[in-house]
Amino acid sequence: MYKIIKYILTDILRNKIIIAYILVLLSISLSIFALEDNVNKGLLSLLNLILIVLPLFSIIFSTIYLYNSSEFIELILSQPIKRKIIWIGFSFGLSIALSIAFILSIALPILIFVHTLSALMIVIVGLLLTNIFVAVALFACVKIRDKARGIGVAIILWMYFSLLFDALILFLLFQFNDYPIEKPMIVISSFNPIDLARVLVLLQLDESAMMGYTGAIFKEYFGTKLGMSISVFILTTWYTIPLYFSNKQFDKKDL
Amino acid sequence: MIIANNVTKQFGKLKALNDFSVECHSGACISLIGPNGSGKTTFIKSVLGMIIPDSGFITFNNQNIDKDCTYRSNIGYMPQIGRYPDNMSIGQVIDLMKEIRMNNGTISLDEDLLNAFQIQKITDKKMCTLSGGTRQKVSAVLAFLFNPSVLILDEPTAGLDPVASEILKEKITLEKHREKLILITSHILSDLDELVNEVIFMQEGKLIFHKEVEELKLETGEKMLGKVIANVMSKN
Predict the structure, then answer these.
(1) CA A234, CA A190: separation in Å to the nearest integer?
(2) Which long-range contacts (CB under 8 A, 24 or more apart) does B17-20 make?
(3) How many domains does chain A have?
(4) Which of B13, B54, B103, B143 has the most other CB atoms within 10 Å of its CB?
C-alpha cells in the first residue's frame, strides 16, 4: 500500500496543475491578509474561498485523476496486490496530496497571520471539505464507467452542494413556513457538507449575521458547543460513508 | 492448476461466459480458440481476478481465487492491448513491477526478452510515445520477467514485427519445455502450429471442446492447426 500511496503522491505533487493551484491560492490568501487590517474580515473572505473553490477543485481533480489512472489500476490489478489495498492506496494518495496542497496554499498563511481558535477551525473545516469531496469523487468514479459522464456528474454534484441546495432550502422554507419545520431542517441541512462546514465556522466566529437559516437553528437548538460537535461528527460521516461504499463497489467491479 | 467450475458472467444481455468449466494443467500449452466475442478474454480476465464471475468459481492450485491475491505472483500476463500510465517511462514501469513483485522473497529475473528486444536502449522513453508494437514488447517483457509458472498471453503476436514475433515464439517454446502452463489466444492459427498441444474451443461463452491437438488431427485427418479448426468449425 505504501508503494501505491508513494507513487500517487509523487505523481500528483509533480503535476503542474496542482503547483499552479497552490501558487494561485497562496497569492490570494496572502494578498487578502495584506490588504485587510482586520484579520477576522480576512478570515471570512477566505472562508468563502474554502467553501466554493476547495470542493470544486477537490472533486474535479480527483475525478479526472482517477479516470486517467484507469490504465495504472488495470496494470497493478494483474499483479499480486489486493483490490482493497489498491483502492485505499488511491484514496489516501489523493487525500494526502490535496490536503498538502490546501495546507501550503491556505492553511499556512491563516495560521501565520491569525492566532485564534477560529483560524484553527477554518483550517480543520478546509481539510474536512477537501477529503469529503475526494471521497465523493471516488464514489462517483467507481459507479460510472464513462469518463465524460463521470466528470459531468462530479460538476453537477458540486453545483448541487454549493448552489442548488440553498435554493432548495429556501423553497422548503417558503412552502412550509406555517409549520414548525425547524427540526426537519436540521436533518435536511446535514445532507450538505458545505452548508454544515459554513455553520461550523460561523458558530465559532459567532457571526450571527452570516449564519443563515440553518446556522441559526443549529445555534438555537444545540448551543455552540454541541452544535459544533454534531456538525463535525456529520462531516466525518460524509467522508467515511462514500469511502466505504466506493471501496465495496470497487471490490466487485469488472475492469 | 487452473480449474474453472461452471463460471457464468453476463454483461447486460450478453452472456460472455455461460456455464464454462475447464481444467488446465502444468506442462500444457493451450490455445483458446473461438470467434470474436466468444468469451476468451473474459475467461482470461476472470482467471486474473479482473472480472468477477456472477456464479461459479475458479481455483488456482486448488485455492479459490476470490479470497486470495497471492496466486497472481505465479502468473505472467500479457494483455491484448497493453495499457500503461502515459507519463511513466519504460524503465519506471519495469521498476514499479519489480518493486511490487519482489517483496515476497527474491525471485530470479528472466531477462531474456529484455535483452532480445533491446529494451534497455529505450528505457527513458515515455509510454505515451511508444508505438503499438513496442508496447507489445514491453508487455511481453513484463509477462516473462518474473519467471512465473503460468503464462497467459492474449494475442501475443498481434502488432509485432516478424523478427520480434519469432523471438517471442522461440521464448514461448523454451518456457513450454520447462513444464509451465501456457494459455494463448490468437486468431493467427499458423503462429500456434508449432507451439500448442491442446486446444480449447469456445463459442458464445460455452466450451465446445477441450482436446489434444494430436487427437484433433487424427479425427479430422488434417495436418495444419488452421485446417483442423476450419474443419471442426464447419461441422459445428
Answers:
(1) 7
(2) B17/B42, B17/B43, B17/B46, B17/B53, B17/B205, B18/B204, B18/B205, B18/B206, B19/B56, B19/B206, B20/B56, B20/B202, B20/B205, B20/B206, B20/B207
(3) 1
(4) B143
- In this complex, do B101 and A69 lie within 8 Å of one another by their Cβ atoms? no
- Amino acid occupying residue B82: G
For residue B53, what are the domain limits? Answer: 2-235
Query: What is the least distance, in Å, from the CA of B170 to any CA of chain A?
Result: 25
Among the partner-chain residues A70, A78, A252, the one whose CB lies closest to the CB of B77 is A78
Which residue type, as a one-letter code, is found at position A236? Answer: T
pLDDT tens, residue order, chain B (236 aa): 899 999 999 988 888 999 999 999 888 899 998 888 888 989 999 998 888 899 999 999 888 888 788 888 889 999 888 888 888 889 988 888 888 887 655 667 888 888 889 988 998 999 889 988 999 999 999 999 988 899 999 988 888 899 999 999 999 988 888 889 999 998 888 878 888 889 999 988 899 889 888 888 888 888 888 888 888 878 76
Tell me, yes or no, whether A201 lies in a domain.
no
Q: B49 is written with which cell numbers? A: 481476478
Cell numbers at B31, concatenated: 490455445
Show residues of chain A in contact with B48, CB under 8 Å.
77-78
Asked if the C-beta of B51 comes within 8 angstroms of chain A's C-beta atoms, the answer is: yes
Pick from A68, A79, A252: CB nearest B97: A79
Q: What is the pTM of this model?
A: 0.87
- Inter-chain contact B48–A77, Cβ cutoff 8 Å? yes
Query: What distance in Å separates residue B84's CA from the closest CA in chain A?
Result: 5
The CATH number that applies at residue B27 is 3.40.50.300
Q: Does B49 touch chain A (CB under 8 A)?
A: yes
Q: How many domains does chain B have?
A: 1
Q: Do the chains contact at B100 and A3, CB–CB below 8 Å? A: yes
